[in-house]
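Hello forum,

I keep getting stuck at the same step: I have a sequence, I want structure tokens, and every attempt I make locally crashes halfway through. Rather than fight my setup again tonight, could one of you with a working pipeline run this one for me? It's a single chain of 168 residues.
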Amino acid sequence: MPNGFQVNANRIDPYKTYKFQLKWDGKTVLGVMKASVLKRTTNVITHRSGGENSVDHKTPGRTTYDAVTLERGITWDLDFENWANKVHPYAGETAMDLANFRKECALEVLNEKGQVARRFLLHGCWVSEYQAVPALDSSANAIAIETIKLEMEGWERDVSATEPNESQ
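Reply #2:
Ran it on my machine without issues. Output:
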């Protein structure tokens, strides 16, 4: 009976949400502990045809891609801040890095062994929001989190990332 896995026929469990990594500029981004959903929405265009006015016909319209929010604990790695500063640095619009503020990213879902099970390519990403420091509370027992929100032109599944052989 089919179970959703081709290479690992004995596997019955789907992949977990806690094993993933994000890459940009050819390297894994350190410490990303949370990523929001990859979602696209296609608008529905409703129209009627003459002589058939009691029935609505539906066709696809524009497709939009939701932004992805990334969270990680604050460290001395400045990748989030440096990228956000390319879009709008404190020096103002004249200091904006028009040539390099967009990046190609890859979001990889990993199996329990750390092998890439799925890879999604995020195209034309740029930082629309940057949170350098969370609300601070001296009575809390929590990790300080920094956050970026990535706008994108779109995403697609990387079909070259195939199901890993988990018996090795």
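Residues 89 and 96 are 6 Å apart (CA to CA). If your local run keeps crashing, start a new thread with the error log.
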